[in-house]
Specification:
331 residues, alpha/beta, Rossmann fold, Alpha-Beta Plaits, 2 domains, 6-stranded mixed beta sheet, 4-stranded antiparallel beta sheet, elongated, binds adenosine-5'-diphosphate, binds magnesium ion
């Protein structure tokens, strides 16, 4: 049985399609990432899987339980760490965990034992009696992860687990996530950080505008776009594109004009770059810069969506766009 399985899972808000027919299959024990820019539909997806939002259509099973018909069973078998902080600042670490244990009807001695275990898991045992207000961002995140683990869930959902943390703290959180996954917890995390998905996940689904655009292990995704990525900034990208399409080089996918210039995937950059200079010279195209590298998940995103990936793309802007689309839809 899969830990999570969805079929055409869809969520609409007043006609705006936030999640558009997503099919997922996540095995037990996997560390799985939903990767996408702000507004892609990650939180909405995780909210449906954790029974906080009802799907508009489609189906989802979590640990074999239907998220709509067996919501209580689903909730019992999952832990959630929300994108937005949700600890009580005025209480101690221990008290925050204790409340959670009570909500899950854990008996007193069971609660106390488990609190010790989960605090140890995230290296906060010595801070059990400290008020959360005194914690750093990284410590709060760890405590939230500990809380998500209190009732020993089979699946842990982490919505943007390192959002807003500095790079060093982020790496620490990655270590904790890897550790608890090794100990048997299935993890579904969402992130808009490419390197986070790359560094952490066994398997990645890239979503954009509510749809899955690519899926695989980080390395298979990078391999799927073939070889090196060359970016050329030049005076006449359209002309260079046409000329490159005719040239006899090992181009592995159709050249694309993006905000960053002409992008070409090739088998070996060293062999193609001299030809680019030749062709530009013959066609009086002024080359401003040429860069090449092995593909990253960013290039994978660019490849499958035709758009550059912007980590900082504001969700406020997306909301506005969404509202405008909804308003247009109503007319
Ligand atoms: N409650 C809601 N009402 C209306 N629109 C929403 C609501 N929640 C999310 N959206 C919209 O749905 C889209 C997906 O949002 P979300 O799932 O939060 O994306 P992500 O988590 O990937 O950033 C966005 O355009 C967002 O503005
Ligand atoms: Mg989100």
């Amino acid at each position: 049985m899969a830990a999570i399985e969805t079929a055409a899972l869809t969520k609409k808000f007043n006609g705006f399609v936030a999640v558009d027919g997503i099919n997922l299959k996540i095995k037990k024990g996997e560390l799985f990432a939903l990767l996408g820019p702000n507004g892609a539909g990650k939180t909405t997806t995780i909210s449906m899987l954790s029974t906080l939002l009802k799907p508009t259509s489609g189906k989802a099973l979590v640990n074999g339980h239907d998220v709509v018909k067996e919501a209580a069973k689903v909730r019992q078998s999952i832990g959630i760490v929300f994108q937005d902080p949700s600890l009580d600042d005025q209480l101690t670490a221990m008290e925050n965990l204790d409340i959670h244990g009570r909500l899950y009807h854990m008996a007193g001695n069971e609660r106390r034992k488990r609190i010790r275990e989960v605090l140890e898991m995230v290296d906060l045992a010595d801070r059990a009696d400290s008020i959360v207000k005194t914690f750093s961002g990284g410590m709060r995140r760890r405590l939230e992860i500990a809380r998500g683990l209190m009732h020993s869930p089979e699946v842990l959902f982490l919505d943007e687990p390192t959002l807003g943390l500095d790079p060093q703290t982020r790496r620490h959180i990655w270590d904790y996530i890897k550790k608890l996954n090794r100990e048997g917890v299935t993890v579904l995390l969402t992130t808009h950080y490419m390197e986070e998905a790359d560094a952490l996940a066994d398997r990645v689904v890239i979503i954009d505008r509510g749809r899955i655009v690519a899926e695989g292990t980080p390395s298979s995704l990078k391999d799927s776009i073939g070889g090196d990525v060359i970016k050329i900034s030049c005076s006449k990208p359209e002309e260079l594109k046409k000329a490159m399409e005719k040239c006899e080089c090992d181009i592995t996918s159709e050249p694309r004009i993006t905000e960053e210039g002409l992008v070409i995937n090739v088998k070996k950059a060293e062999e193609v770059i001299p030809k680019i200079f030749d062709i530009s010279a013959k066609n009086s195209i002024e080359v401003k810069s040429i860069t090449y590298k092995e593909p990253s998940l960013e290039d994978v995103f660019l490849h499958y969506t035709g758009r550059a990936y912007r980590e900082e793309e504001g969700s406020e802007k997306d909301r506005l766009k969404m509202r405008m689309r909804v308003m247009r839809g109503r007319r």
